[in-house]
Write a structure and sequence with these properties.
Shape: globular
Largest sheet: 6 strands, antiparallel
CATH class of the largest domain: Alpha Beta
Strand order of the largest sheet: 26-27-28-33-30-31
CATH superfamily of the largest domain: Glycosidases
Distance between the termini: 66 Å
Number of strands: 33
Number of domains: 3
Length: 490
Amino acid sequence: MMNNKIPEIGLWEMFEVTLEGPKRGNPFLEVELKAIFTHESGETLEIEGFYNDNGIYKIRFMPVKKGHWRYVTESNVEELDGQKGEFICVDLSPGNHGPVRVHNKYHFAYADGTPYIPFGTTLYAWIYQSPTLIKQTLDTLRKSPFNKVRMCIFPKYYAYNREEPVMYPFKGSISEGFDFTWFNVSFFEHLERQIENLMKMGIEADLILFHPYDRWGFSNMGFENDIRYLRYVVARLSAYRNVWWSLANEYDFLESKTLEDWDRYFQLIQEKDPYNHLRSIHCGITFYDYSKPWVTHASIQWQGSLRSWGGDNWGEKKVLEWRRRYGKPIIVDECGYEGDIEFGWGNLTSQEMVNRIWEGVTTGGYVTHGETYYREDEVLWWSKGGRLHGQSPERIAFLKKIIEEAPDYLEPIHVDWDVSCIGKEKDYYLIYFDVNRPRFRKLTLPEEGSYRIEVIDAWNMTVDVVGTFRGECKIELPGRSYMALRITRV
């Protein structure tokens, strides 16, 4: 007796359709395939398929709504056209909160409404390392505070990263050249395994689609090949709920692409990704216009203090200036790296790394960690992964806990020109003194209600209760840098 039970798939999990079709010619170029998925409510989503080599074609779908879904395929190849199927989308699986979205204009939340606070790290070329090193990287991430990883799809050629990769995203070699019309499916399956590994740990994969540090020609494939590559990547990877799209790392150093090209790449991804994953582009020196409608959040490089004031309004902190300019969440995805290598961007003290993250967070933004300590084997975390050697990660975990314990979606509050503060008016304030080291601070608290005040040492990771106050008060401080006050209405 045949079992005709309709398959069940969890909300925001992956439903995959596998079909057999032609192997002749170049199916990456010649075969068109998509499916129309229809929910019982009548809502439809169009999903592009892709060739997976050896005559196998796939269509991947991430259901965005519970209930009964049906699909039918469309193709220019007869045996792939008109294929039908159905499934039931059921409740969430444990730990699955769905993809991350922009929430409350300047913040983020998962699709189920759970707040998401990005505390990311940078691992540009970790997927190109040995299986042993990849495992070590995953083990390190599992014990870390990081919930987002910036990572390249293309290999990287740069200082401390000169080794030739074992495999590439395209068919070919450095000696014979690459066929940009023929994707290396083994490479993409390897990439997918790492995205899945991150997803199991609750880590978002911020995928960098292009970058300038290249010796293989991947940064200069031409517009037509770029478009084909982007369509293939979106078709393969958009059904992973933890994917973000970063159009480029330091886009302004890619001289072969114009601003018009970047705009068109953004619009293509926006059109082809049915799930509206987060989209941004990382700058080197020249900021992209993050206010454009196809950008979801700013991804900024800023090698300096984030508490410094200036801009159009005197006294305005940098993150506040960018929030006002772009009207979107601000992630400083490169503020410099904790380390000791020769480059100015790669030898911050651990104290300054922690300080810059506190500066960004307490002025209303989010800041990404990075580490570049010199090693004889040239295994530096920022590019290859492995182990963390710095002192900032545990202190980032300390800050992360403070933010997670606070009310949701803290906003900047002006307390005075010389401090940063986020909170909720009359309920909660987190004031940061940065490198300054006052012996005391006079505060004016609301007269109604009482407020518990705690002194936080961001470096030594201590929290000391001072007492309960209201109205005018004087708070004694230890006269050290990296201190904060947490003020909570009781």
